[in-house]
Amino acid sequence: MPFFNTPPIMGHMESYLPPIASAAHGKQLLTGPALVVLAAAYQVLKKRITGSNSASELYKHIWKFLGKSEARDKVGRMAQYGCRALQGILAHMSKDFVGQAYKPAIAEMQTSLAWARRTHRWGKEMPHIPALGDAISRGDALEATQRCILITFLVQDHIYWLLKMGFLKFTQYTPAQWHRRNLRFIIASHVCNFAICVRDIKRIQAKQEKSDPSVAENTQAVAKANQDIKDNKMMMVRYVLTFIQMLHASGIKQFDDWYIGIMGVVSAGIDASKQW
């Protein structure tokens, strides 16, 4: 018997150098190497022009951003909801519209991204558990409630994953029914988060009216207080958008995928900006 099941170097379709069946086949095989060659040529040209191969500050910032798990999740969410928007747009187009041919691929991409993000949500509840304890210790009922609901959602989201993979079986729920029910918990969490933002803005404004040193002692304190108010208002917009999205996804109220998708892209963009 031969040592290798398939030739490793050449002569087989899975070898490094497979037999070329057609010009299109050759182009397919050259795509990856060609992009590497272009990247290398760019670096050589950059070295000759600038005298340095060092990455630009923007390039470094982008790879630092993408190195964060939370940032990648939000970029994935932007793409996921972008696919939803595209599907909604295509639903309003004629059957002979050129984009209709890509509708199955767009739907598959949306589903794949959703499950990739759900898989990587395992353990995401961990930082919220100590925060829940802190909120209880402070007597902050609103934040404690929000943390409880969010942790419940995340745990039940893991259960959905186990149901979908077949590790669990529920007689009263299909995986989809369980998921739609669980989305009602994240809806409640968004309501609590919105209320927390309103409360934080009122607290800062009350301090500003009293010229409290923590918000008025110097230029930096004033700027920070104003920025905190701005950030809270931005998050309030985010929670309104995600509230509407979850109403749709949970089946409580049906809207149109095209604008729900756009809302998802915007809300994910807000989240991603916090990681940038």
Can you describe what's shown?
With 276 residues, this protein is an all-alpha fold. The chain has 2 domains: 1-49, no CATH class; 71-275. Helix content is 74%, strand content 0%. It is built from 10 helices and no strands. The chain has helices at 23-50, 57-66, 69-91, 103-119, 128-138, 141-165, 175-209, 213-216, 219-249, 257-275. The longest helix has 35 residues, at 175-209. The mean pLDDT is 96.
Look at the helices and sheets and give the structural class: mainly alpha
What is the chain-wise order of helices and strands? HHHHHHHHHH
CA-based shape: extended
Q: Which regions are unreliable across 5 or more consecutive residues at pLDDT < 50? A: none
Average pLDDT, all residues: 96
Approximately what portion of the residues adopt beta-strand conformation?
A: under 5%
Number of domains: 2
How many H/I helical runs? 10
Q: What is the number of strand segments?
A: 0
Major sheet size, sense and barrel closure:
none
Topology summary:
Layout (H helix, E strand, L loop, with lengths): L22 H28 L6 H10 L2 H23 L11 H17 L8 H11 L2 H25 L9 H35 L3 H4 L2 H31 L7 H19 L1
Salient structural properties:
276 residues; mainly alpha; 2 domains; 10 helices; 0% strand; extended
Describe this structure in a few short sentences.
The chain has 276 residues and is mainly α. Helix content is 74%, strand content 0%. It folds into two domains: 1-49, no CATH class; 71-275.
